[in-house]
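Kindly review this protein for my students:
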Amino acid sequence: MPKRITKKRAKTGAVAPQARRHVGRVNQKMIDQMIALRRQGFTHADIGQRLDVSPRTVRRHTEGVSPQLVHAGDETRIDDLLKWGAQQLRAIQRLARLTVQELDLALKAWRTAVSNLDGMTVEQLELDQELRARFLINEVWPPIHENIDTRRMELDIPGTPIFKRSDVFAIRPA
């Protein structure tokens, strides 16, 4: 039968005292980190290892927080849509003789519009070229066009033409 470990024996070094692995308690900052990491998709074990707490502690403090699910194709789908829009806007730049600053404004508006779409809409836009062109010309281009024309009027420069859906189909990126 092993000898009992007493405080005196531990102090004298006769027995190696067990080191506490987790020092201190979980504070609000740690809980916020746990929640943020969980939302990013980290597992309880990963989070516990990062913050030096047990997976059970992480599970208790992140109960009800689901990891963010990311589908492998979603980012590429959005990238393809952004690329298509950029090609169309570059073609519009040539037709409307937009400046680099005006093209930059248009590209930023396109990126913002696509980023605000839900996954199902992005999927539909990827599959249907006509829907994609209508979205660009009817939803995204009018505010861009208005903004560019307002800036041009301030500089006393002629405005840009209004494009129709048939114009976008006729556009072939260079």
